Amino acid sequence: MTVRGVTVREATVRGSRRALVVLAPGPLTTVQDLGRRRHGHLGVGRSGAADRGALRLANRLLANPENAACLEVTLGGLEVRATGDLLVTLTGAPCPASVTCPDGRTRGIGHASVERLPDGATLRLGVPPRGLRTYLAVRGGIDAPEVLGSRATDLLSGLGPERPAPGSVLPVGPAPTEFPVADLAPAPEPESGVLMLDVLPGPRHDWFTPGALATLCAEPYEVTVQSDRVGMRLRGPRLERARDGELPSEGMVPGALQVPPSGQPTLFLADHPVTGGYPVIAVVRDHHVDRAAQARPGQRIRFRMAGDHRFTGS
């Protein structure tokens, strides 16, 4: 096939399998797909890409199945070398990216575009100026072993592939039979200002004072550095309880806003625990969980009650 006038050989390199060799993993790089479904009764969470839309877009650009495994790269810093000729794309948080070929020539590559990574070439990702998580997909997908039907790394439970380290070899699966139909996709960039997230009242909003939901939606909350794939710890107006004591553990979902005794909410993300014992005052609507996953420490978030704009100031 030809991408931007360059013929790409997708067969296995003689004597070796196509792969990505990790030279530097950056602050945090994990293998992710769309996660493990229907294993909650075993105490196993879904995990998977924090920004599912970005992973799906990356795979569509390469004509991969939408659940193919990619690399989720937090705040850039990843450096990989190609074994065999590869096609790759970057989605999610846009970051500076360059390819250095074996002959020493270096070129920049675009975002949300199909790019050639020749055998022996090195791809380097810088720090994204906005957003948090960038997705590196390769045509054929990362062919890590499956655990309970998924190749996702769950940092809370420890299931899935180990985090890539310098020297890790990540095999690439067979190229799909279909070919990419576009070499570029316009995609909105993550927001750098105040991020607005739609919420619904949570199952335990009655554990809080009558004005607590209004308080949640009245002022921004800041994303703290104590945030990860499990959840975002937020700092802002205290959410006052109307009841004392704790709940028996009950099921949790991505987007749940759980409130510990401090009154400062935690927004659960992809690697959230299956159960929790603190009351959930509200739940971020599913279509905004991906947006939340791109919020970086120091960024401010505002919540808007879905279908009710009384608390937004608009």
Protein architecture, described:
With 314 residues, the protein is mainly β. The longest helix has 10 residues, at 52-61. 45% of the residues are buried. The chain contains 3 helices and 22 strands. The strands form 5 sheets. Strands 14-21-18-19-16-15-22 form a 7-stranded mixed beta barrel. Strands 9-8-11-6-3-13 form a 6-stranded antiparallel β-sheet, with no helix packed on it. It is 8% helix and 31% strand.
Explain the layout of strands and helices.
Elements: E1 2-3, E2 6-7, E3 19-25, E4 28-32, H1 52-61, E5 70-74, E6 78-83, E7 86-92, E8 97-100, E9 106-108, E10 115-117, E11 122-125, E12 133-138, E13 169-171, E14 195-201, H2 212-218, E15 221-227, E16 231-235, E17 250-251, E18 256-258, E19 266-268, E20 275-276, E21 280-284, H3 286-293, E22 300-305
Parallel strand pairs: 14-22
Antiparallel strand pairs: 1-2, 3-6, 3-13, 4-5, 5-12, 6-11, 7-10, 7-12, 8-9, 8-11, 14-21, 15-16, 15-22, 16-19, 17-20, 18-19, 18-21
* Count of discrete alpha- or pi-helical segments spanning 4 or more residues: 3
Approximately how much beta-strand content do the residues carry?
25-35%
Strand order of the largest sheet: 14-21-18-19-16-15-22
* Average pLDDT number: 91
Shape: elongated
User: Describe the biggest sheet?
Assistant: 7 strands, mixed, barrel
Backbone CA Rg: 21 Å
Task: Output the structural class.
Answer: mainly beta
